[in-house]
Predict the structure of Cation diffusion facilitator family transporter.
Amino acid sequence: MNTQEPAPTRAAVDEQKLLERFMWLSIGAAIVTIVLKATAAWVTGSVGFLSDALESGINLVAAAVGLWALKLSAKPADDNHNFGHSRAEYFSAQVEGTLILIASMVIIYTAVDRLINPVPVQQLGIGLAFSIVATLLNLGVGVALIRAGKKYRSTTLNADGHHLLTDVWTTVGVIVGMALVWLTGWQPLDPIVALLVGLNILFTGYTLLKGAILGLLSHTLPEDEQEVVQNFLDAYAKDNGVTFTSVRTAEAGRDRLVNLVMQVPGAWTVDHSHDHADAVEEGIAAALGGAETIVHIEPLGHPTRTGPLQI
């Protein structure tokens, strides 16, 4: 069976290239921030700065996996993947969430060890300067990724952007903590800040993993998009004398999937029913800004199956 799809449009190719450039931006930002934060940790001996540098290392790995997932998700359907590769982006989010969880465990362990075996920090002023520069860089890139992720419905960009913003808040907390150590001389603040950072990262990893798992389980479209679909169907049914039942929706990475039954007058020919099915598919795609819709035709009054198919 040949399941090859038509060649992607020029707009789709351009969008894919744009998303990949965003991921390369994330990779570049991660490399720079690792250097800055690792330098801050090395100069000061602070476990707080070290924990921050470790998270940026996770950012780099996650961005690289995200770039791979974006490239894979853009591949068209083939004989082994009849519905395409769009769910690869959820794999990226899972990897990122898992790496964040591992990093949080390492940070928490290091912080507890430093509480038990305290080590004084030094030259905090220089370390703070490096961390502030890294924070501003991550803030700019993180906001850009989230905006692009929402615009283009990219799970990978959205996850990576939120990870970077989490990194920003993490670094802000570290900077505040280190500044207080600098001003007060109270050394236990260093591992306490690192411990709080680890707990915050732990929660972020859990959130990313939860979202990725829901995506793999064919989670329905967001409520606002379901409402868009229903409003279109209500208007179409009123104008054309048909009825829609068994409407189902799902997300698959950047793709939207809609499956429904359209009940039509029994006197309609196959050709006429097919024309209306095409109009519904095109209308939903236009209303959502892109969607794959499957329309099953039934005669009006046909009983609607509400339970699972019995074989």
